[in-house]
Amino acid sequence: MTPPRRQRRYPTEQPPPPPLPLPAPPQQGNGKPERLFVVAGKDGGERAELDLVTLIVASAAPPPSAAPEQAALLRLCTTPLSVAELSAYLNLPFSAMTVLLTDMLTAELVTARAPIVRQSVADRSLLEAVMHGLQRL
């Protein structure tokens, strides 16, 4: 009995198809990508105390005069999202995101709140009540 012959996916006469092109980054009208200082605006030096886990919630709908990044951020923040998530979704570094969010916080378009911290240790009386309830079953 002879083993089955292994067949190639692509014959050796034809080269494999070329790889798919990568998506192009968003560009301005002149073909060059936007600089971060254009996205972030003028940095006045005063920044809000934001952390990567600070939750951002939109307070209003995007106004017609809002920049595209601000409008996208307001559409994303209908539910609370962290600064790290917003930075990833908008493909902006944390430093540019803090400047953008500081401007939006001063304009009262968004609100920032600290994340909800859960207790690391459960209450002993609650655990005892659960244990006694399970023992009665």
From TrEMBL:
Residues 13-26 have a biased composition (Pro residues). It holds the Pfam family DUF742. It comes from the Bacteria. Signal peptide: none annotated. Residues 1-34 are annotated as: Disordered. This is DUF742 domain-containing protein.
